[in-house]
TrEMBL record:
Protein name in UniProt: Mediator of RNA polymerase II transcription subunit 8
One GO term describing the cellular component: mediator complex
Species this protein is from: Basidiobolus meristosporus CBS 931.73
Recorded name of the encoding gene: MED8
Keywords for this protein: Activator, Nucleus, Transcription, Transcription regulation
Family according to the record: Belongs to the Mediator complex subunit 8 family.
Subunit field text: Component of the Mediator complex.
Top-level lineage group: Eukaryota
Main localization of the protein described in the UniProt heading: nucleus
InterPro entries hit by this protein: Mediatior_Med8_fun/met
Pfam families from the UniProt entry: Med8
Cellular localisation: Nucleus
């Protein structure tokens, strides 16, 4: 157990990261041997299987690294570097600035995806035009809604004064009419029906 900023940090988390890192390194070496052009070419299913294992090991290591406990740790060597090789390794591990080649490549990528100034101006003009059109249509919709509300209020106000015909027959009246028609049909005799058919259209 080690104490850092008043908190007890268990070394088990670091050991887990180290174990996952060694597993990833071992799996990576096996994969390199599989795709080594100097060796016999392996079957594609075998290559795919080992690549999937490599990806799984990487995911496991990544899950260990994002452990919140590790964010509270600060690692440093127990003794200062004594050789040029150790100083070089420490410089690489503690580097906060990319090497010039990588910085140049990053800048090239940024330049490729960046929007030119003239394109920005056109984009701003398009956005302004769309906002203007949107405000115009919103004003039209508001005016249309006011007309609809006025028409509805006017109709409700004068509906009782106008003699409006109903467009449908109430269900009660419709049932009574159907019952009367059935009664009239029952009263007709066969002679009445034949006489009506023989009379032809009127």
């Amino acid at each position: 157990m080690d104490e850092f900023f008043g908190q007890n940090v268990n070394i088990v988390e670091l050991e887990a990261v180290r174990s996952k890192l060694l597993q990833l390194q071992e799996t990576f070496n096996f994969f390199l041997q599989t795709v080594n052009p100097e060796l016999p070419i392996a079957a594609w299913p075998e290559i795919l299987n080992k690549f999937n294992i490599l990806v799984a090991k990487y995911v496991n290591l990544n899950n260990e690294i994002i452990n919140p406990v590790l964010k509270k740790l600060v690692l440093h060597p127990n003794e200062p570097a004594t050789t040029d090789q150790e100083n070089q390794i420490m410089g690489v591990l503690l580097r906060t600035k990319q090497i010039p080649e990588i910085e140049r490549e990053e800048q090239e990528v940024k330049d490729e995806v960046s929007i030119p100034e003239d394109a920005k101006a056109l984009l701003e003009n398009d956005i302004a035009a769309m906002q203007n059109a949107l405000s115009i249509w919103q004003a039209k919709i508001k005016k249309y809604d006011s007309f609809c509300n006025f028409a509805e209020e006017t109709f409700d106000k004068h509906m009782d004064k106008a003699a409006l015909k109903t467009r449908y027959v109430p269900e009660e009246e419709q049932e009574v009419t159907e019952d009367l028609a059935m009664e009239e049909a029952d009263k007709r005799t066969l002679e009445d029906t034949l006489s009506w058919i023989s009379s032809g259209p009127k």
